[in-house]
Design a protein that fits this description.
Oligomer: heterodimer
Strand content of chain B: 15-25%
Largest interface: A-B, 23 and 33 residues
Number of helices of chain B: 11
Number of strands of chain B: 10
Distance between the termini of chain B: 30 Å
Helix content of chain A: over 70%
Radius of gyration of chain A: 19 Å
Order of helices and strands of chain B: EEEHEEHEHHHHEHEHEEHHH
Helix content of chain B: 25-40%
Radius of gyration of chain B: 19 Å
Number of domains of chain A: 1
Structural class of chain A: mainly alpha
Shape of chain B: globular
Structural class of chain B: alpha/beta
Shape of chain A: globular
Strand content of chain A: under 5%
Largest sheet of chain B: 6 strands, mixed
Number of helices of chain A: 12
Chain lengths: 303, 271
């Protein structure tokens, strides 16, 4: 494989894994209209839970399922803070993000857990396929299978009666209640599924890179946001299936840019700033356009 | 007319901002007995308590302690709003409240079909539902049954209100609440929506409460008329008592019952 092949295959793997984060962000932000910042914490939570369990000798696939469960619970708590205690969504997410930092340190009994000597999901898949462990092909296959399973489940779920009620909650909460839908329950469920997916991504990344670290989730929400925005801009998706594909596609394009930037010698530490600036630009463009057209612009949302 | 009570309000009071200088007694011990298949028009000036009454029946907030909302023999006062929905369909003044803009006509109706039923993991818009939705939309004669996958946000407000009306009634709730549902529409569209309302209410025999500011509408539609003032029902006319009345007769009745002068604002709203 040449340099281009390397860059593409690596972005492909990362796009699929971080596509899970993008789908999670898409679920809360776009489907529920609930800007959920829990993501930074639940991503690390997933990595930490999976890593600790694997070190303790648990099957890596089971450990990844446990990570989903942990993320699910974290999302549930965020939803409860918002619906039952009426804490604004943004603040509920920030509180969870901060709280989870301490929890993650406790889970790992320190700042990080190494998996270098452990058998991970990647090793098992490589073994099954008879390929060299650590090969990018193995990584892509594993990530692809997981992303495909998530895609099919969500594409079905969002069309069911419960899924429809969940989507409608983000569109018109008042209407859903007046038609007999329990909007609180829908928000809880949406946040829980979203953070379950994000935690799964954390668990896979930890296994792929060979360690979980308390700082691994920093900026995840912004990355997810960037992926969703890029996906929407590039694919202009309509319908549930395409929106899910667009989230993963956006994550792929985003990771492609990042990988190229790194190849060109950019310092890894600068990437978060660049991502943040990208999101700022993407969010500001509609406003600047409206301003240029002298349209009426609603006041900025403070909560 | 059937003699069976469908909705009974007993000693319903509602106080907002209790204990502050802004304290408002929005409802003052209202009792009302609505027979099955009654179509009641409700009039009264701003602040009379009309919408508060609908909100209590719809479960947006509970009445003060001791108040009872009995629908078909079940006391539903104090249940959360989404549980009230099993008994009560509602159309709001603003079509944006009754429909979800970013979802298709079919998805909106599918949500409404599931009123009062538990939502499960069955695919929401299947063939059977699509037929059900088509059949419900066809009598409107707006051509919406052929545009099931159009986003509701692309419809005009009259069309949206017609969809909202079908959504409120498609699962045949015991009670239909109309909260000035034609007030935000232009006169022609309002006429169409009121006509559709009449058709659906007659066909489904739904017991209906229609709040309006418009005295002419209150006299033209329904079989019973109540007038509210300062959180009380001050005039209650059955079909015979109402027949042949003019707007001026109503104003006289109002002034006699409430002991206060009918002010100009309200006259302007005779429409």
């Amino acid at each position: 494989m040449g340099v281009v092949g390397n860059v593409l295959s690596f972005s492909c793997y990362e796009g699929l894994v971080f596509g899970l984060v993008a789908i999670g962000v898409y679920l809360t932000l776009r489907v529920l209209a609930f800007p959920d910042l829990t993501v930074d914490g639940s991503y690390t939570l997933g990595g930490a839970v999976a890593a600790v369990l694997i070190v303790a000798g648990v099957n890596p696939f089971l450990a990844s399922l446990a990570a989903i469960g942990a993320g699910f619970c974290a999302g549930l708590v965020t939803g409860i803070l918002n619906t039952k205690l009426r804490i604004p969504a943004l603040l509920a997410g920030i509180l969870m993000m901060v709280g989870l930092y301490s929890i993650n340190l406790r889970i790992m009994s320190g700042a990080n857990v190494s998996l270098l000597r452990e058998v991970t999901s990647f090793d098992i898949v490589a073994d099954l396929l008879g390929m060299r462990s650590g090969s990018i092909v193995v990584s892509i296959i594993l990530a692809l299978v997981i992303a495909a399973v998530v895609f099919f489940i969500l594409n079905w779920f969002l069309r069911t009666e419960i899924g429809l009620s969940l989507r409608a909650t983000g569109d018109n909460e008042q209407m859903v209640r007046s038609l007999g839908g329990d909007t609180d329950k829908n928000i809880l469920l949406g946040c829980a599924i979203s953070n379950g997916l994000v935690a799964l991504a954390g668990a896979i990344v930890a296994q792929g890179q060979g360690f979980a670290d308390v700082g691994m989730g920093i900026g995840m929400i912004v990355m997810g946001l960037a992926s969703v925005i890029i996906g929407e801009a590039l694919f202009r998706p309509k319908g549930v299936a395409w929106l899910l594909v667009a989230a993963v596609g956006g994550a792929f394009v985003y990771r492609l840019f990042i990988t190229i930037a790194l190849r060109m010698g950019m310092a890894p530490g600068d990437l978060k700033l660049i991502t943040a600036v990208l999101v700022v630009i993407a969010l500001a463009i509609p406003y600047i356009r409206k301003k240029a057209r002298r349209e009426w612009i609603p006041p900025a949302v403070r909560w | 007319m059937s003699a069976k009570s469908l909705l009974q309000l007993k000693k319903i009071s509602k106080v907002f901002s209790r204990g502050t200088v802004d304290e408002v007694k929005a409802l003052n011990g209202i009792s009302l007995d609505v027979k099955a298949e009654d179509y009641i028009t409700v009039i009264g000036s701003n602040g009379a308590g009309k919408t508060t009454m609908l909100n209590v029946i719809g479960g947006v907030f509970p009445p003060e302690r001791g108040g009872r909302v009995i629908v078909d023999g079940t006391d539903i006062a104090g249940l959360s709003e989404y549980k009230h929905a099993a008994y009560v369909g509602r159309v709001y003044q603003d079509p944006n409240i009754g429909t979800a803009a970013k979802m298709t006509i079919e998805e909106n109706l599918a949500m409404a079909v599931l009123r009062g039923k538990s939502r499960g993991l069955r695919v929401a818009c299947d063939k059977q539902r699509r037929e059900e939705v088509r059949e419900a939309l066809a009598p409107l004669k707006l051509g919406l049954e052929g545009r099931l996958s159009a986003l509701v946000g692309t419809l005009s407000s009259g069309q949206r209100q017609a969809v909202a009306l079908v959504m409120a009634t498609i699962s045949r709730p015991a009670l239909l609440l109309l909260d000035e549902h034609s007030a935000n529409l232009d006169p022609r569209t309002a006429q169409i929506v009121l006509g559709l309302t009449e058709m659906i209410v007659k066909r489904e025999k739904i017991t209906t409460l229609m709040v309006t500011h418009n005295m002419e509408l209150a006299l033209r539609y329904g079989n019973r008329l109540i007038m509210m003032h300062e959180g009380r029902i001050v005039v209650d006319l059955n079909h015979e008592q109402r027949t042949g009345l003019t707007i001026n007769d109503l104003i006289t009745a109002f002034e006699r019952a409430s002991g206060s002068k009918f002010n100009e604002d309200e006259l302007l709203l005779r429409g």
